[in-house]
Amino acid sequence: MPWIELSLTLHADQQERIESALNELGALSVTLLDAEDHPIFEPMPGETPVWPTIKLAALFDIVCDRVGLVHVLTDLVPEIAPDQLQFRDVPDEDWTRAWMDTFQPMQFGRRLWIYPWNIEPPDDAADAVIVRLDPGLAFGTGTHPTTALCLEWLDGVDLNGKTVVDYGCGSGVLAIAALKLGAARVIGVDLDPQALESSRDNAERNGVVDALELMLPADYTAVPQDILVANILAGPLDELAPLFAASIKPGHPFALSGILAGQDVELLRRYSEWFTDLDVAQREDWVRISGCRR
Asked: At what angle do helices 173-180 and 145-155 cross, to 10 degrees?
């Protein structure tokens, strides 16, 4: 059935009261979006940060009394003016199908493909390396430039029989790709227990879970391995440089991403203490740093 969407722009300190009032009035769902350009990167587990200015959208039953809804909401939250509130009709739609239709197979490098579960690879894709992911995953499917940069790098590295460290494994897409590209073992590390569960679930779906060892950072001990990839953020990458240096064998490769263009300058200086042949690749506003352990 169709719905009514009520939307307004508000400040972060108003969000909790307005959302609570909308729920009291029978909102079927409440969605928060960034009203300006204040990206939030990798909140800590349990954190629910919001943007300074928020666009809120609430769905109501199509038979809802719009005039009455405005009257009661402005009574409950007096700082809301009626002219702040906008309504639109939202037609009925299969939202899962709509999302799945936007998530199409993607190629990274020469061999590697990410396929959603709802699309079968063609018969002539026998030589392709295919990772299957649930279309319900919003991040870690390869659509973000940082993930794409790392997937392309993995496709170009000799992984056969190697042990790979995936630090900040998230959905597990990089770990799974590494295993499907020939790695013998991957150590996946993430500070979010839910991310570890997601990695495990996706690895099971791809038939590689037995070769994937998952752990929290507190349980990770740096032992020199063949390859390291880390798709996190510039701040943690700076702090973790000594740990990463202790996690890679001399002469072996690594790649870092989650780095905004411009942040690479300081990271290149930082990592040059332990790494050589440093190279920068860029996609949109994001960069990847790669090189070898001295």
From this structure: 20
Beta-carbon contacts of 272 under 8 Å, excluding residues fewer than 6 positions away, are 278
What is the spatial distance between Cα 241 and Cα 266, in angstroms, rounded to a whole number? 12
For 3-92, CATH number out of 2.40.50.100, 3.40.50.1360, 3.30.70.260, 3.30.565.10 equals 3.30.70.260
Could you tell me which residues are annotated as the binding site? 147, 168, 190, 231
> Each residue of 167-195: pLDDT tens digit?
999 889 999 999 999 999 999 999 989 88
Q: Report the top-level CATH class of 156-293.
A: alpha beta
Closest CA to 118 of 107, 129, 102: 102
Residue whose tokens read 């499907």:
180
Report the distance separating Cα 133 and Cα 194, nearest Å. Answer: 16
Question: pTM of the full predicted structure?
Answer: 0.74
Q: Which residues are annotated as a binding site for S-adenosyl-L-methionine?
A: 147, 168, 190, 231
For 188-219, write each residue's pLDDT tens digit: 999 989 889 989 999 999 999 999 999 999 99
